[in-house]
Structure formats: C-alpha cells, structure tokens
Amino acid sequence: MEVFYYVVFGALSAIVAGLELGKSGKDRVATTSAFNSFKNNYVLVYSLMMSGDWLQGPYVYFLYSQYGFDKGDIGRLFIAGFGSSMLFGTIVGSLADKQGRKRACITYCITYILSCITKHSPQYKVLMIGRILGGIATSLLFSAFESWLVAEHNKRGFDPQWLSITFSKAIFLGNGLIAIVSGLFANLLAENLGFGPVAPFDAAACFLAIGMAIIMSSWSENYGDPSDSKDLMAQFKVAAKAIASDEKIALLGAIQSLFEGSMYTFVFLWTPALSPNEEDIPHGFIFATFMLSSMLGSSIASRLLARKLKVEGYMQIVFSISAVTLVLPVVTNFLVPPSSVKGGTISFGGCLQLLGFCTFEACVGIFWPSIMKMRSQYIPEEARSTIMNFFRIPLNLFVCVVLYNVNAFPITVMFGMCSIFLFMAAILQRRLMVVSDLHKSSTKAQEMIGEDEPLNP
C-alpha cells in the first residue's frame, strides 16, 4: 500500500486525537448519571446499527462488479434501493409514529439482515430484491431511531440541551470510530483473510442481530400520535400540513434533501473517480480514511454545539466548503493530465481528489449532529418519523435520476451538479436562519405584550 494513504490517515488521526484530548471546560456539559446511562445505551445500539450499515459500504459496488455487472447495471441496482426508500420506506417509516418507534427499529434490523443474505446470490433479480429491502431499512435507520431518542429523551424529563450531547456522541462513534473499524474489518475479511467481498455482509448481519437483541430487552416503546382515529393517510396529511404551513420545516427538508442527495451521489461516484483507469486502490482503507474525516467533523460539531453556537449560522459555512470540495474533480480534470496507464497506482490527480473528498467527509461529520439538532427544534413530535421520511422523498428521487443517467454524463458533470446543489443548500440555510430569528423575535414580542396586558386594562 502506498505511503500516501498512511500519511493522510495518520495526519487525520493526530488531528482528531488532539481535538478530543484538548477539550476544555467550555466543551463539556455537566449531566446526571441517569442521563449518561440512557445516552450510553442509545449510543451502543446506534453504533451496532451503523456497523451493520458501514460494513457493507466499501464493497457494495465492488461486489456487484465482481459478479460481472457493468456500471449501468450497478446503477440500476442503486436506483432500486433509493426508489424503494422513496416509496415503500416512506410508508414503513411513517408507521413508526402510529405503531411504535421501537417496533420500527426492530423491523430495520430484520429487513437489513435479509438484505445482507441476498448478497450471496449472483442472480440480478435476487440482488434487486436485496436492494429493495435495503432501501426500506435505510428509511427506518434515518428516522425511527432518532424519533425514538427524541421522544424518550423528553419523556424522561432530561434537559433538551442534552440532546446535542447524544447526537454528537452517536455520530462521533457510529459515523466515525465504528465506521473506521468497520472499513478496516471489511478490508481484513474480504482481502487479507481471503473470504471475498461477500464476507462483510455476513458480519453486518451478525452485528444487526446483536443490536436487535439489546433493543428488545432494554428499550421501551413510544409513539408519535397513537390515537385509534389516525390512519396512515391521516398521518400523511398531518405531515404535509406541517411542512406546508411552516417555512422553517420546508426549508429544513430542502436543505436535507440537497445535502444528502449530493452525499449519496458521492458514495456512488468516489470509487470510479479515484480509479478512472482501473487503478489499484485499497477500497476498505480509503473508506476508513473517509470515516476518520467524518469523525473529525463530528468532533468539531460537538465543540460548536457545546458552546451553543447558532447551528443555522455555522452550517452556511459548512455547506459552502462542501460545495468547493466536490467541484475539485472538475478542476483537476482540466488542470492535471490524466494517467494513461491501466491498473497502476493512484494518480496525482487522484491524490488531490482524495484530500478534497476527506474534507467533504469532515463536512458530513458536522452535518449529521447539526441537522439532528435542528430537526429536534423544528419538527413536531406527533408526526416526527412521517415528516422525516417526507424529507427523504425528494432526496431519493434526485439520486434515482442521477444514477439512471450515470452513463449519459461524465463524472465531472455529476460532481459539478452536486456542487451547485450544495451552494443552494448554503443559501437556503441562510434563509432558515433569517426566518428562525424573525419567529423568535415575534414570539418574544408577543410574550412581552402578554406580560404587560394585566398592567394595561
């Protein structure tokens, strides 16, 4: 393996260690033992759930290619996953508000385990079924768990500000350390031990089963609106009304769709971007490096949130930086001559892109706890899972359109489009801050008028 990969990984490791060890009193919040126990239980479960997801990440594209499918065939498999998340996942995820968030989390485990099992088959139809199941599971992963946490946190009477601590710790471990270990473990299983690219999926199923056992034994059930009069269509109407009537929720949904749509497109494109001439790159190690970058971002986010900096303010900068990083492949394509050697080592242009991609992943690490914090503030509890899955409809539609046309446009065009969308997210984030400040000022003025009314009959 080239020294370059070790240098990047080592430098990122040193920065993350320095940030974590250098935390001062301003970066820490005093909490209770009851909250710490609750937080640790959730972080453990979330980490197991994410390990089940991250173990699959480095080898999804590679496994499909090993089965003999070209980029177009693989693109259609990815489309099936995102399309499933948009259609079936939205319905299943929305049922969490009605039928219970704990049940939805257990459903995620079962669905994803079944998806992992399908990876043993080289049959395209079986793999397609696996992608559909994976799409449903993804919707549950990014809605049911967060909805359960917010409701349970409030039900137990913990300080609302402490939610940021759980979010940051869950992302730091689940989307950081666990993802790094998962990438290295997947690399160990598939390449060093020679079990092949399907082995990480078997390991993922095992971790999901362990997490499901902990959920069943230690979590209590909670609901959004459990009233008998609310059917699924009524739940959809409540969510649609909330989005249409509150500009803050609509803006938040648009921001999330633009960023996550670009992020998922990046997940599909980073492998061919770094190896345009079939260069020999260590997929698992690069994936672990990306996750270390995400860990760096979540560490920065924990400091920002602990110091109570305005999320709506600093996220404008984050979106702008992420937009610049994804335009880097376009720039390097024009400025750096492409290599003509097939199957060699990573090119100089690839090295530059890798550094840019690491910066983008750091932005992703800041994004997750920050968007969770904003969702906890703006989304009403009675339809939290439903609204969160509504947000995923445009993002899944966007990714499906991109992947469907993956062979029609060069990779540079795809990255350029993602960069534009990220700049749009920065602009909408600015608008969200303005609207939020106006709402707070209006609410404060009304409270002051209410206090003065008894004195002025």
Automatic annotation (TrEMBL):
GO terms of biological process kind: monoatomic ion transport
Phosphoprotein listed as a keyword: no
CDD domains: MFS_MFSD5_like (cd17487)
Subcellular location: Cell membrane
Coiled coil segments of this chain: none
Signal sequence extent: none
InterPro entries noted in UniProt: MFS_trans_sf, MOT2/MFSD5
GO cellular component terms given for this protein: plasma membrane
UniProt keyword annotations, A-Z: Cell membrane, Ion transport, Membrane, Transmembrane, Transmembrane helix, Transport
Main location: membrane
Function: Mediates high-affinity intracellular uptake of the rare oligo-element molybdenum.
UniProt protein name: Molybdate-anion transporter
Organism listed in the record: Urochloa decumbens
Classification of source organism: Eukaryota, Viridiplantae, Streptophyta, Embryophyta, Tracheophyta
